[in-house]
Design brief:
Blueprint: H1 6-15, H2 30-40, H3 61-70, H4 82-98, E1 108-112, H5 115-136, E2 145-149, H6 154-162, E3 166-170, H7 184-187, E4 192-198, H8 210-224, E5 230-233, H9 241-244, E6 257-263, E7 275-279, E8 291-295, E9 298-302, H10 312-349, E10 353-355, E11 364-369, H11 378-386, E12 393-396, E13 405-410, H12 417-437, H13 450-455
Parallel strand pairs: 2-3, 2-4, 4-5, 5-6
Antiparallel strand pairs: 1-7, 6-7, 8-9, 10-11, 11-13, 12-13
Helix pairs in contact: 3-10, 10-12, 11-12
Bound molecules: pyridoxal-5'-phosphate.
Pyridoxal-5'-phosphate binds next to helix 5.
Length: about 450
Amino acid sequence: MKHRAPFDLLFDEFNEPIPDSHFPQYGMSARAAKATVNSESWSDCQPVMNLSSFVTTFTEPEALEIAHQHFLKNYIDHDMYPQMFEMEGRMVRWLHQLWNGPKNVDPYGTATVGSSEACMLAGLAHKWNWRQAREAAGKDGSRPNMVTGGNVQIVWKKFLRYFDVEPRIAPLKPGNYRLTTEHLDRLVDENTIAVVAIAGQTFTGEDDDIQEIHDWLDAYERKTGISIPMHIDGASGGFVNPFLYPEYVWDFRLPRVQSINASGHKFGLVPPGLGWIIFRERKIFNEDLMFYVNYLGGEMPTATLNFSRNAFQIAYQYYAFLRLGFDGYRMVMRHTVDNAEFLRKRLVDSGYFEIMNKTQRIPVVALTLKSEFTNFNEFDVSARVRERGWVLSAYSMPPDAQTVNSLRVVVRPHLNHNVIDELADDIIHACQWLHQHGGTATAPVLHDPHKVAVSKC
Ligand SMILES: *Cc1c(COP(=O)(O)O)cnc(C)c1O
């Protein structure tokens, strides 16, 4: 190789095409590799402006240092990093208490990669419990089903397909986007492993009719003798409800609620990926799903889908709980919901929108254009504000509300009042422009509307 000055070398490296379909043959300098990676992602959106996502995009410098200090640890190596495991166990007990788990029981739960893994573990526990009970009673245990609303996050559809459980999905309708008791009598039967109700759903931010569903299932048991447990998908609501609405009964205070998941990386305020699954008590997590690993001369239970995972999110969550405490989370959530209410008011007052979430628990603003605006739609508004850098989800609602389009803004804690004001201006200006010039977007036809919701960054 002929002698080249370092600058020439960099120059060449920066201009070398990156192979698309074969493994790169030669390496490059660290500086060139870094510049290549970063330049290839320049056109990604700015995470702080991605308001289609629930996931944390804010960090304190101290928390970033925590992440840095722990990110080379593999969480599953309990022998080597027993203190990470200790922190996790302590946080499981804290969450069990936060969600009003019964006292004098052995709480069980685990940190997961996200709510998705947490939901899968909960679904498996209910499937196993149901099948064992059926077999013990000499009944057929081969046709499990699960009841959810059409508003569930995609993870439940994955669970049902991957783990062979029949979906029993209650349809939505224009004007009602929640699971209520309306369809339960044709969906629930002796093969129902659980009813999943959501605290803070992805589409409109609303809660399902948790208490009513619980009461309906009580009445069903009195009538038929069949007792069906509930799982609460608190991916978002799990870190909002306890702090802002302590009197609101959505959690383990309801005896049928056997398991609750939440996303540490949503309103738990940790960067991706951290989720939590907490069981009412240890025995709900079916013993047959538990594996035991040798651990410092003893045996430790393990029951996650993943084996290796990064430990930093666990240290980070522990930092966040210590740093903020109950009071701090309450203040952060208060300010965030206040901002959501401010945005909601500005957009409703603009005259363009109707609000879709009648209740406002988690800080989500879900809107649909008033029917008088026929020359543009929610997809146009989303595309137009994208020119200003904002990413807002637009999607058509799940069946049977698919005629309704939604524009959704997830107001996260990093946004302040000024930013919300500017966002409201940008959305209103987009509507004014579109009303005058007309829009061109058509709603994409998809089997699963979540594809739209999650594909935006
Ligand atoms: C985000 C979300 C999930 C999936 O959670 P991840 O943490 O992204 O894996 C499940 N259910 C609901 C209601 C959610 O909002």
